[in-house]
Design a protein that fits this description.
2 domains, 5-stranded mixed beta sheet
């Protein structure tokens, strides 16, 4: 995702010639003056088509359910407001065949780039798009922790963080046997989770616990909660340290759970979400926005903050890192389309628009204005206060991994190594040592990227 990465050349959109939709050569006989006016008409038809095409903004996504409906509604309203000046067109990444043809906008988690584009393309910084096309974007409007998820080294937003979540633990109450109803369904620590998973397993639950977004939940957030610095910055140099004590301890615990059938691993990204929504697993660690999807599916679910190790010195359970889908900009489009995209981003930042989006998608509010709008619409005060406390925390001491090439390499290397932890005698320490080495090695990272593409 770094700016130096290249991607396949864009296939130029073809401008359709006038067809029977406009006229039929069998119905109109061209002679003399008719040929002249037909030529003039054809010129204007082609010019209009080219102009309209230049201002058609493709937005690729992989949403479903209420979030997909909400995005479609917002796009329709925006298109009505700019009628005659272009339109935003949605593309579903799961059914779009020619993925090498890049859209202008993409709403995605950076880990899903290969699924969206069959590659990892370079992105245009959002702040540059907004500045160049007359839509100023002040980074101070965002909650500090929301901005931190998409900020570059200067604190400017690289993307619009409209699909952020917090890492949480969700529990499907239907999966809890009646004989175990007295157990605590709000575990605070990972030891509590182990006891709960063991109880569920003893009562015949085949998949007590699973996880989505493994690297974010079980590497980055574990490090953040327990004061372990993963992102090592020295001047312009940036390295990653994945093999710290707490991460090794945690991965070793998960490996023991996997062998005991307390934990099932379905993949590094969002593969486990459907397993949980279909009732296959009793618990899942993942994105807080999944709660909305679970409720929409008619599930009786409880939600708890991500557990932690309370015996670790200085541990802070609530020091978790928002992350998730953001609206990214891809370069190489006509200026008129870029200008329309900038207007669309400004539209999405309106408080009423954000309120509607957050309520439907379960994503975190990007700005205080959006949270205030949610309060006014009836959001429980305790929930709103808790969200504000975390999102408003200063990013002055941030050591989180910034979006970019290094974080991509870290996730790819970790994905390969944890798969070996589950299937071979490889220890957690060995896996994280190799992850650290490969993430910091450009040569190894390139080979890891190719391996990831082959798996896809």
């Amino acid at each position: 995702m770094g700016s130096k990465q290249q991607y396949a050349p864009r296939q130029q959109a073809t401008i359709p010639l006038a067809t029977s939709r406009f006229y039929s050569t069998e119905e109109v006989k061209l002679t003399g003056i008719n040929k002249y006016f037909s030529g003039v008409l054809g010129f204007f038809v082609l010019s209009f088509s080219a102009h309209a095409s230049a201002q058609e903004v493709a937005l690729r996504h992989a949403l479903d359910g209420k979030a997909q409906d909400a995005l479609a509604t917002l796009v329709l309203r925006f298109n009505d407001s700019v009628k005659g000046h272009g339109r935003v067109v949605l593309q579903d990444a799961r059914s779009f065949d020619n993925k090498h043809t890049l859209p202008l906008l993409a709403l995605l988690n950076a880990d899903d780039s290969v699924n969206f584009f069959n590659a990892r393309p370079a992105f245009m910084p959002l702040h540059k798009l907004m500045r160049d096309y007359g839509q100023p974007l002040n980074p101070d409007i965002f909650y500090p922790q929301i901005l931190d998820a998409v900020a570059d080294s200067t604190g400017q937003p690289q993307a619009l963080p409209m699909g952020m979540s917090l890492p949480v633990l969700l529990i499907n109450r239907k999966q809890v046997p009646s004989a175990a109803k007295t157990i605590d369904l709000a575990p605070r620590t990972w030891h509590d989770v182990q006891n709960l998973a063991g109880t569920l397993s003893d009562h015949g639950v085949k998949c007590p616990l699973t996880s989505s977004r493994f690297a974010w939940v079980h590497l980055e957030n574990i490090a953040s909660q327990h004061g372990e610095q993963m992102d090592i910055r020295t001047g312009r140099s940036e390295k990653v340290k994945a093999n710290n004590l707490m991460n090794v301890k945690h991965l070793a615990l998960l490996a023991s759970w996997e062998k005991s059938r307390y934990f099932e691993y379905f993949g590094p990204d969002a593969e486990a979400n459907q397993r949980f929504l279909q009732g296959e697993c009793a618990m899942i660690t993942g994105e807080s926005s999944l709660y909305v999807a679970a409720r929409a599916a008619g599930m009786d679910v409880s939600i708890a903050p991500l557990p932690f190790y309370e015996d670790a010195y200085g541990a802070q359970r609530d020091k978790v890192l928002p992350d998730g889908a953001a609206l990214w900009v891809l370069p190489g489009q006509p200026k008129a389309a870029n200008a329309l995209a900038a207007r669309f981003v400004s539209y999405l930042l309106q408080p009423d628009v954000q309120k509607e989006w957050v309520r439907a998608s379960g994503s975190l509010p990007m700005t205080p204005e959006a949270l205030n709008a949610l309060r006014e619409s009836g959001m429980p005060a305790a929930l709103a206060d808790a969200a504000e406390r975390r999102l408003a925390a200063s990013r002055g001491d941030s050591t989180r991994m910034r979006p970019g090439t290094l974080r991509d390499h870290l996730h790819l290397a970790l994905n390969e190594q944890v798969a070996l932890v589950w299937s071979t005698p490889l220890s957690a320490k060995q896996a994280l040592d190799t992850t650290t080495l490969r993430a910091n090695s450009p040569v190894s990272s390139k080979s890891t990227t190719k391996a990831a593409r082959r798996r896809k």
